[in-house]
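Quick note —
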Amino acid sequence: SAVLGADLIAHGGNPAQRDLLLPGIAAGTTIATLAARDASGGPLPQAIGPVLDGGRLTGSAHYVPFGDCANLLIVAARAGDGIALIALSADLAGIVTTAQTALDATRPLARIDFDIDVPEEAMLDAAALEPALARAAGLLASEQLGVAERSLTETVAYAGERVQFGRRIGSFQAVKHRLADMKLAVDEARSAAAWAAGAIAGGEDHALA
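Predicted structure written out below.
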């Protein structure tokens, strides 16, 4: 919501749309999410599911993060040979949300079906989509780095506590090698995440693609 949803509005919305939609996200009263992927779950923008034809939005967006609780949907839809970007309230008639099973229970997913006429004032600038996806991927790298660092810390602590064959397993050479490999992988990830953050901060998010 705070990253991808706000980014799409900030860079794809006109001044009136930004004034209307961004304050709620900043205050935490609006949960915004991107509804875009088709059933294949492939990478965006190639795997877009919804279709906008003659002002009518149809089709489905799958694997929408927090789609079951979002109240603002930023919908990416195929529109002829291009892409349309639309901001819609999730409670409009013609929008149906169905929860989907997710591997990570803290990150709920949903399928959202559309059959609705889109007002002109809901349209955003579709050129904002790909740069926003790149920036979101760069920031997601930092989150994944945090998970990896915490996993390494807990694994090292466990290896120093768990006793097998009368010795702490961290004393075994094979375990030491695996922990060293994990440390190298985390250090490499930290460098990649720092580079991505620098590219975003410097306005070079196009390099993330």
